[in-house]
Amino acid sequence: MNQDPLLALAQDVGVVVDWVDFDGQDRRVGRETIAAVLTALGHDADTPRQAQDVRRALAPPAFIVAQAGATVTLPCPARHARVIYEDGRGLDLQVRDGALAFALAEPGYHTLELEDRLVTLAICPPRCLTPRDLLGRRAWGLGAQLYAARDHGDFGDFASLADLAKAAATAGADALAISPTNALFPAAPARCSPYSPSSRDHLNILYADPSTLGAAAAPPGGPDLIDWPSASAAKLARLDAAYQAFGGDPRFEDFIAAGGVELRRHALFEALDEHFAPTLGAGGWRAWPSAFRDPASAEAAAEALGIGERTGFFLFAQWLADLGLQAAHGEAKAAGMGLGLITDLAVGLDPGGSHAWRRPQDLMIGLTLGAPPDAFQAAGQGWGITSFSPQALATSGYAPFLTTLRAALRHAGGLRIDHALGLGRLWVVPDGAPADQGAYLRYPIDDLLNLIALESRRAGAVVIGEDLGVVPEGLRDKLAERGLLGMRVLPFERDADGAFKPPADWDRLAVAMTSTHDLSPVAGWWRGGDIAWRERLGAPGDRLAEGAAREQDRKTLWDAARQAGVAEGAPPDSDEPQAAVDAALALVAETPCELALIPLEDLLGLEDAPNLPGVVEVHPNWRRRLPGPAEALLSQPLVAARLARLNAQRPR
Q1: Based on the structure, what is the number of domains in the chain?
Q2: End-to-end Cα spacing for the chain
């Protein structure tokens, strides 16, 4: 029986037609949704004939990913073939019966020369580097929301990061994991979520600081909650003053040359976005006059607007940000950190941002990422961001993915990949459709993991894959096999009966954490602050039942801490959380996980979460600041005692 051409095309390009929901029920994606997803992916498949034509047009890529030592086999009508290694050495290959079979042991990006074409060979090591590979031991570090730092100005920047990194290294930390530093929208500072970037290949210029070039650093100041519009205006004014006084620097010219056309166009986007934002809104490039919607024509059209100077400013600010991040990582390593900074890579991009304007062919314009319906979100979720098109990755030799990966590792000793489940599949929803009318889209996970392993080795960096939530069967094993550290977070590490797992039972190849930016810190959890927030927001649920369950959870956590030998006596009262924080930190440090990351909120015993998912106006997401400068905070007696215990449990 002939297969339905539309479903066959969907299968070819990775649309998962049949899937199983959170409740174990079999589901099938509707034909209308399939057609909309295919169209957004660039396949005009309105009729069976069109679907067949599109299938025939799918061309084999000129890029092959393989593990070192694995045999590569491909048809080869040519009579001669030759491998050119990265260092220029050559290796002749034998073609037999119209086929080529060979194995290369040396990782790298090599070239296969055939008579009619060139093929890039990405030969990858079997796995990423891990902390034990690099340090020969278990390690610990801190996690920080960069903007929350209190050392300079109205919000944390890369100058603050350097101070925090030095203080953390002096305290014994091997790593400092930070929130994403990707470019946002300078023309709309209130859009402050670091997980909805304009570009993941460039930095947030608000984190740049003129003190990197020797100017006086801004003194500590500002309110406890960041007022992003006013704070951003003050920072942009400081940066503009530094630009006006800038007398030139060969490093700046080298930076522009290295960044090439994509860097110049990113700066142009930010200048144009600033120009059009008052009337069209930031990120509204699809409503710009037609001459500005295409980067090639926009360069000439922008001159007529007289914004060339602003483009120069945004280039300068981008360079200053790059210098600042480089200096912060250098300070961390110089002060004794074994790994240094661990950066964070958001899962997607704002479709109104710089990347979508510069390179729409890389992305799934017309689709938003999200999540299907589950027990907590009956309507599903749409996140308002998009990501790379799987076909664009394949046909481009994974160029956009590699560019983004290398940008994230440029000044870092590690990388956290947000929503690492997306390496295998993402839930995509056609623009304008309800979130439950989406489909899973497969990604070439084996190729992506191989390339991550190769880039990890080349950068000398560890990689963390955020594997929380509804994890497909086998994914965690696959990540572990390739050396990506999973995330094991204390509230979720339970056995089938709900008891907290003993530290010895935690996964070795993982990062142990007390909480995340989306969870209430331990002190807030112990008090029931998250339950109070749900009450304040009118969220569905039985608060009395939740309170009773929390009381039992407190006892269960304390029992686990006593059994592990890191606590004693009766559990403290709900309004006395600091002893519970001590126990939680000690439990996490006791695990065999290669890296323990302690969020600063937990090290300091704070109670409020940086972010409350699904809430925008009511909760101050991405605005909370730390209670003081880094060095002073880490020297407080209670904090110093926690640091001493971490060092005793995980010595250098």
Answers
A1: 1
A2: 65
What are residue 118's DSSP bridge partners?
113
List the beta bridge partners of residue 345: 417
In sequence order, the 6+-apart residues with CB closer than 8 A to the CB of 452 are: 128, 405, 417, 463, 482, 484
Distance CA 295, CA 301 (A): 10
Q: Which amino acid is at 343?
A: T
Cα distances (Å, whole numbers) of residue 280 to 30, 285, 360, 546? 35, 8, 20, 45
Distance CA 223, CA 246 (A): 31
Residues of the chain with pLDDT under 70: 1-2, 45-61, 375-376
Residue 95 sits in a domain whose CATH number is 2.60.40.10
Q: Is residue 395 part of a domain?
A: no
Bridge partners (DSSP) listed for residue 464: 416, 485
Q: Is the pTM of this model over 0.70?
A: yes
Range of the domain at 117: 69-124
pLDDT confidence of residue 1 = 40
What pLDDT, on a 0 to 100 scale, did the predictor assign at position 54? Answer: 52
CB 387 within 8 A of CB 401: no
Which residues have a Cβ under 8 Å from the Cβ of 265 and sit 6 or more positions away? 295, 299, 354, 357, 358
Give backbone dihedrals phi and psi of 537, rounded to 5 degrees, phi first.
-85, -5
| pLDDT at site 616 | 75
Query: In whole angstroms, what is the distance from residue 40 CA to residue 73 CA?
Result: 33
Is residue 42 classed exposed, middle or buried when 0-12, 13-18 and 19+ CB atoms within 10 A define those classes? middle
In a domain, 613, yes or no: no
pLDDT digits (tens, 9 = 90+) for 599-625: 999 999 999 999 998 787 789 999 999
Nearest to 85 by CA among 49, 55, 48, 112: 112
The pLDDT score that the predictor gives to residue 52 is 55
CB under 8 Å to 60, separation ≥6 — which residues? none
Give the integer Cα–Cα distance in Å for 6 and 31: 8
pLDDT of 376:
65
User: Does residue 95 fall inside a structural domain?
Assistant: yes
Classify burial at 89, counting beta carbons within 10 Å of its beta carbon; exposed 0-12, middle 13-18, buried 19 or more: exposed
3-state secondary structure of 344: strand
What pLDDT, on the 0 to 100 scale, is given for residue 462?
98
Q: 610 in helix, strand or coil?
A: coil
Q: Looking at residue 496, what DSSP letter applies?
A: T
**Is residue 393 a part of any domain in this protein?**
no
Which amino acid is it at 577? Answer: P
